[in-house]
Amino acid sequence: MSNTDLNSLSPFEFSLFLHEEVKKQPGLPLLDAGRGNPNWTSPTPREAFFLLGEFATSELIFSQEENALGSQINSKQARLKLFEAFLSKRDTQGSRYWQHLLKHRDLIKGDFASWFDEACDAITGDNYPSPERVLDVAEGPLKRFMTKALFDENEVDFDVFPVEGGAAGICYAFDTLMNSHLLHKGDKIALFLPTFAPYVELPHLSSYMFEVVPIKAARVKVGDHVEYTYPDSELQKLSDPEIQLAVLVNPSNPNSNALNDENLKTIKEIVTNKRPDLLFISDDVYGTFVPNFKSLFAVIPDNCLCLYSFSKYYGATGWRLGVLAVSKNNVMEKLIEKLPMHCKRKVSARYAPLMINDRLSFIDRLVADSRDITLNHVAGLSTPQQMMITLFSIYGIVQNGAHYQQLIMHLCHKREDRFFEVMELPSLRSEYDTAYYCDLNIINWASEHYNSEFAEYLETEWSTVDFLTELARKEHVILLRTAPFGSDLWSVRISLANLHTHEYGELGERIIHFVDQIYQKFLEQTK
């Protein structure tokens, strides 16, 4: 493929191309630091899930006429005692998870026996999700988890809609904003950069064709540390009354920095004093990697749709588990009421089959749109998936969950420290740093590690695509180019989540070895 063809590929398609190139060159073991999939899992809530499934299956009364047939889960007064006996025969992390929950039933609001009956039914998966938006068994634990892990214990009155991962959530959000006439084709939106590459591509789809206003982060030195922050001049762009929506990933990808307190304060002031009608979508998937994280939703809940995915934190990318959170006092519903009459008629006509007293909450519009209105009665995330969300959420709010978070943070920072030490990079400010990714500008690093003349040579004689292709071929190292994320042309993303800890030192050594060879050629040419 030509450089032009390779440049036109998305970062993820280009990564697949690099994999094929590595296969052609046998040698060193592959170090793929381009993938965002973590190499850890959370076994305790998973084991709790499968124990519940095993028990629930034993509760299905088999037909006397045909052993292959079973009944559905019905209420049973003695079910909890049977479950306790079931757990007593098992001494595992999963059984201790349930025993802890049985001793602390106040973690579940309402009657615990009824909740447990619903949990057995949910994991069996024999009924349509009801209510369609979120199961009762899942709603309480999920909201408590989000309040603790993302919203800084801010008691916002909000609703949740579990969805098929973050990818589905962002699509549903855009669809409903368009269908509700809060966004129109060609509107102006703001995008916090750098960000997840598909979010850069999404506004330019033919169905949207949005005019994008970039809000660019700056890399700044704070003492001996580095952090990424949004200058006031960038955030003030949000004051533009033509901007209808702002989209951000917080903490960011690939910079891995959460919005600092000053940024949150500035955004709140802009919304309060200048743009009370401005909408936000905040993807907080990496929020659980930052100590004392505060989502934008905790600061301006009424203007913000919060999107969270369990994929990275719990090593659950294959489960497709996400959630959309919407304040009950959200601005979206107020803006729909203020729409011009011709738009209001279209919106009313679309949602008419579901409207009672001419009203429908914004989150119920999200649910209905996820199944094109007509299939609203079979909407909702599958009940076993919602049960997995429930068990992940409960784990996240108990003491063991706090220990799990500390382990994950320590692991990521240990990997970051090892890579940064070999590459001689300044450390990031830990209070905002997820250490899930790092964004490395090759030219800036070459200038500091070698000299500015060599950096200029590298920038002139090589392209990012050439550099990454040859790095893959010669060193069997795959990194992700992040210009399509809105980063600098020569920036690459290193995932700190998917290699073994000891491999991050070797990763740095291979990168240096590769650049050393280019440097030697540079020296020969400049003699």
From TrEMBL:
GO terms for biological process: amino acid metabolic process. Its EC number is 2.6.1.-. The keyword Disulfide bond does not apply. Its cofactor is pyridoxal 5'-phosphate. CDD domains: AAT_like (cd00609). GO terms for molecular function: lyase activity; pyridoxal phosphate binding; transaminase activity. Pfam families: Aminotran_1_2. The keyword Lyase applies. Residues 169-336 form the Aminotransferase class I/classII large domain. Keywords: Aminotransferase, Lyase, Pyridoxal phosphate, Transferase. It is an enzyme of class 2 (transferase). Belongs to the class-I pyridoxal-phosphate-dependent aminotransferase family. NCBIfam families: asp_4_decarbox, PRK09275.1. This is Aminotransferase. It comes from Lactobacillus gigeriorum DSM 23908 = CRBIP 24.85. The lineage of its organism: Bacteria, Bacillati, Bacillota, Bacilli, Lactobacillales.
